[in-house]
Write a structure and sequence with these properties.
Helix content is about 5%, strand content about 50%. The protein has one helix and seven strands, in the order E-E-E-E-H-E-E-E. The longest helix is centred in the middle third of the chain and has 10 residues, at about 55-60.
Length: about 140
């Protein structure tokens, strides 16, 4: 199984392009904080992402540098040769993209629904009427 779920902030503006056959594609990078701090400082990983077709158009329209984004996709690897040397790449191919912050908390507004590649709407945990997890001493086990 190859599934990646990330929650982070865009490190640069989204680059939307169109292939010669007319397919939309965008690339961007997401800064994702690591779970544990080292010497009181949290490290971040900077992960390159690629989205295609409607997902690419959605991301380029509603997200910009600094905006929090939730993505679901798969890890893809590639390689290319440059100056006789082989270079390897690792990217996340985005299948679903979600707003992960409020429209007023950084970046530009975003009141449109979240988007998935199969045109389902979701909210990545926002406004889902969820019940918070009880404190450890309130758990039944």
């Amino acid at each position: 199984m190859n599934k990646v779920i990330l929650l982070g902030r865009l490190t640069r503006d989204v680059e939307l392009r169109t292939t010669p056959s007319g397919v939309s594609v965008c690339s961007f990078s997401v800064a994702v904080n690591r779970r544990f701090a080292k010497d009181g400082q949290r490290d971040a990983d900077f992960i390159n992402c690629v989205a295609w077709r409607n997902t690419a158009e959605f991301i380029s329209k509603y997200f910009s540098k600094g905006r929090m984004i939730g993505i679901v996709g798969s890890l893809t690897t590639g390689r290319y040769e440059k100056d006789g040397q082989t270079h390897y790449t690792t990217d996340v191919t985005v299948d679903e993209a979600y707003f992960a912050d409020s429209k007023n908390s950084g970046g530009e507004g975003g009141s449109a629904p979240s988007f998935t590649s199969d045109n389902n709407s979701a909210s990545f945990g926002m406004n889902d009427d969820f019940m918070p997890t009880p404190a450890d001493d309130d758990l039944p086990f």
